[in-house]
Please model this.
Amino acid sequence: MPTTEAQLSAQLYQESRERTAGLLTTLDDAAWAAAVPTCPGWTVRDVVAHVAAVAEEWVDGRLAGVPTDAQTAAQVARFSDAGTADLLAAWADAASLLEDAAHARGLVAPVADVVSHEHDIRTALGRPGARDSAAVRYSSEQVLDILQTPVPLRVTVEDAEYRCGPDGGDELRLRTSRFESLRWRTGRRSRAQLAAMDWSADPEPVLDALYLFGPAATDIVE
Model:
C-alpha cells in the first residue's frame, strides 16, 4: 500500500491511465478522431496528447497547475506527428516518471486531470464506467474541499458531507455524488444542469461559485 500522499496519487494516476489506455488500444482512426463533447474543439487524440504532455511537464516542473489555453494548444501540437502507439507509449513513459518522482521527491501526481479526461474520453466513445474509482473519490474530495460559496452550503455525497460558505444564515443543501461533483466542479455540466440538481431551495445564489472553470456551453449527458 502507498505510504505517502505522493505515492497514493501516483498509484491512482496509473490506475486511471491504464483504464484509459485499455479503451484506446483497439480504437480505429475514426474513434481516435471522435469529437469530445466535454472538451469543445478537441478529439480523443487531442485529449490523449494533452494528458501525456501534462505528465511530462509535471515531472520536469514546467507545469504545476491548470495550464493556460496557449499551453494546452502547445501540448496538443507537440504530438501532432506521433502515431497513436507512440503517443500511448510517451504517456506511459511519463506516468512511470511520475511514479518515480513520487517515491524520490514526493511529487504529487495530477490525478484530477487524468481522471477527468478519462471520463471525457469515455463520454466521447460511449463507454461509461469506473465512476466509483478511487481516483474519482480522491479528486472529488480535492475539488469539494476547496469549494467556496457566498452563502452557506452543505454538499452531501455518498460517504461524506462538505460545508462551505459563511457561518450563520439559512443553509442551502445539495445532494449529489462524487462522480457528479467532480464533473460539475471541472466544468462538465451546463448552468442549466447545475440549476436542475437536487437542491433544497433556489440555488441561484451559488450557481456561479460551483465550477472551477466552465460551465459547459451546452448540456452534457454522460
